[in-house]
Design goal:
Blueprint (H helix, E strand, L loop, with lengths): L2 H16 L3 H27 L16 E2 L8 E3 L12 H14 L7 H4 L3 H14 L3 E5 L2 H12 L5 E5 L4 H9 L3 E5 L4 H10 L6 E6 L1 E2 L4 E2 L2 H11 L2 E5 L14 H4 L8 E5 L10 E5 L1 H10 L1 H4 L6 H16 L2 H4 L1 H15 L10 E7 L1 H13 L2 E2 L2 E2 L9 E6 L6 H17 L5
Parallel strand pairs: 2-13, 4-5, 4-6, 6-9, 9-10
Antiparallel strand pairs: 1-2, 3-11, 7-8, 10-11, 12-15, 14-15
Organism: Cirrhinus molitorella
Protein name: Aminotransferase class I/classII large domain-containing protein
Keywords: Acyltransferase, Pyridoxal phosphate, Transferase
């Protein structure tokens, strides 16, 4: 037998072992097809329910007046978290450019390796000073700040007591910790007290609430919460994303607004809304807590440092607010102008005196149609529906900015009246 023949006879059965059969090779493709079918069915369900969330493309800076792809001319923006109009403030933009030129585009590192610059420490110091707390730690977002806090602070011998309508990031953060969980009815002090009684055997107890609830613009009853926390020996945490910079006489937040700054122990908030609107979040509180978070908080330890331009913009925004409360104080009159005029027109506006002004519609498809018609009239708003808000609670969430003029507000109200009559919401 020749060598070539021997090799051929030996390799033939070996190839049959190494090469999978046709049935086997088809399995991965079948799995992909099945997965795609499941995904497409889910997408069809969302479309059929009228809860599809499209993304409009903005072709300008963020601000009260923007340009939107597919729309002609100047569009009034009434749905941004740009509460103080600082996202495109000239001094804030310049500070970002200066930081980019001096410190570069990014650190390519987490903080504890080689990702801490002097500007990061400066911003942390200013935020601690702004909130009148001992120390501050920066995160890539407030979602990360919420994800990184509870797991570090609370163990299996502890308890967390959370408002049932807290933000999704708070809920997800609490899920990561091993503490016993108690959920109290929305802003219900009686139910909170019952949960405090139930959890009295716990080592540490933390009452957790949004300062302002973003879907309805309602403000947590912090005075009552702090009273109960002191009575039952619990700590108080608030998420201030929709309050920092413009709630309270100096814009410090709901704890300042309600006179409990010295009674709230931990505050999480964001740089991505009123404070320049770029990105980033943070925790302020006792120095020992902040130091422990630097050692153990996973989103902090395993995420890149905030980019220098973001830090520069946020630092300048905080400096502007610490120098003057004029911008923060301008919000109240503009907010009430919109709320009062809309109510007089026959609309139902949820919440109270917060710049978040939910125009309640109930039906998800109706909210989407009205938002589309508003854009045709030159006003940018977005319909909110399940799962962002409960079923049957669809609304258009209007957000007032300090940068809006009275004329802007009146134009938005007129557009709402026109579309509201078209769709039978008002007469």
């Amino acid at each position: 037998m020749s060598l070539r023949t021997a090799v051929r006879l030996f390799s033939a059965p070996l190839r049959s072992v190494l090469q999978p059969s046709a049935a086997i090779t088809k399995r991965p493709y079948a799995a992909v097809a099945q997965a795609l079918s499941v995904l497409e069915n889910e997408l069809d369900t969302i479309r059929a329910a009228g809860t599809w969330k499209g993304e409009r493309v903005i072709t300008s800076m963020q601000g009260p007046h923007i340009y939107v792809d597919g729309s002609r001319g100047d569009i009034l923006n009434f749905c941004a978290n740009n509460y103080l109009g600082l996202s495109s403030h000239p001094e804030v933009v310049k500070a970002g450019i200066d930081a980019l030129q001096k410190y570069g585009a990014g650190l390519s590192s987490v903080r504890f390796i080689c990702g801490t610059q002097s500007i990061h420490k400066t911003l942390e110091e200013k935020l601690a000073q702004f909130h009148e707390r001992e120390d501050c730690i920066l995160y890539a977002s407030c979602f990360d700040a919420n994800a990184g806090l509870f797991e570090v602070l609370l163990g299996p011998d502890d308890a967390v007591l959370s408002d049932e309508l807290n933000h999704a990031s708070i809920i997800d953060g609490i899920r990561l910790c091993r503490a016993k969980r108690f959920r109290y009815k929305h802003m219900d002090l009686n139910d909170l007290e019952e949960k405090l009684k139930e959890s009295q055997s716990s080592r540490l107890r933390l009452v957790v609430t949004d300062g302002v609830f973003s879907m309805d613009g309602d403000v947590a009853p912090l005075q009552g919460i702090c009273d109960l926390a002191e009575q039952y020996g619990a700590l108080v945490f608030i998420d201030e994303c929709h309050a920092t910079g413009f709630m309270g006489p100096r814009g410090r937040g709901t704890d300042e607004l309600l006179g409990v700054m010295d009674r709230v122990h931990i505050v999480n908030s964001t740089l991505g809304k009123a404070l320049g609107g770029a990105a980033g979040g943070y925790t302020v509180g006792p120095k020992a807590l902040i130091e422990l978070l630097r050692q153990r908080s996973r989103p902090y330890l395993f995420s890149n440092s905030l980019p220098p331009p973001v830090v520069g913009c946020a630092t300048r925004a905080v400096e502007l607010l610490m120098a003057s409360n004029e911008i923060a104080q301008s919000m109240a009159a503009k907010t009430m102008r919109f709320r009062n005029n809309m109510t007089q027109a026959g609309f139902t506006i949820s919440g109270s005196a917060h710049p978040i002004c939910p125009v309640m519609l109930g039906d998800a498809r109706l909210a989407s149609l009205i938002a589309d018609d508003m854009l045709k009239l030159g006003v940018y708003v977005i319909g909110f529906s399940f799962p962002v808000v409960p079923k049957g609670k669809a609304r258009i969430r209007v957000q007032i900015s300090a940068a809006h003029t009275d004329e802007d507000i009146d134009r938005a109200v007129d557009a709402f009246i026109q579309t509201g009559r078209k769709h039978g919401v008002i007469s």
